[in-house]
Known about the structure:
- One of its GO terms (biological process) is regulation of cilium movement.
- This protein has 94 residues and is an all-alpha fold.
- The chain is 91% helix and 0% strand.
- The protein has one helix at residues 8-93.
- The radius of gyration is 39 Å and the shape is rod-shaped.
Amino acid sequence: MKSDHxxxxxxxxxxKVKVCTNKNTSKTKVSTTPLAKILEQxxxxxxxxxxxxxxxxxxxFQVLKKRDEENTITKSQQKRKMTMYVNNVGSCVG
Length: 94
């Protein structure tokens, strides 16, 4: 008779839902734990790759800056030589 009483029915329904929810949650936690570890390892690998690529980019940028400086110096020297040759040719002709 007590089970037919409206006070008791919601309690039973709630407790069943809680049990089902708890069972499903624990299954979900157990099944996602290996996945979480794999994802964490992949994240660490990606961070390491990112760091390595960052260092490579910085190195290559420094190399390019150095080459640009060297090319600027070379162009300046070539301009001076060209001016000198033009002056020499002009003095020989004139």
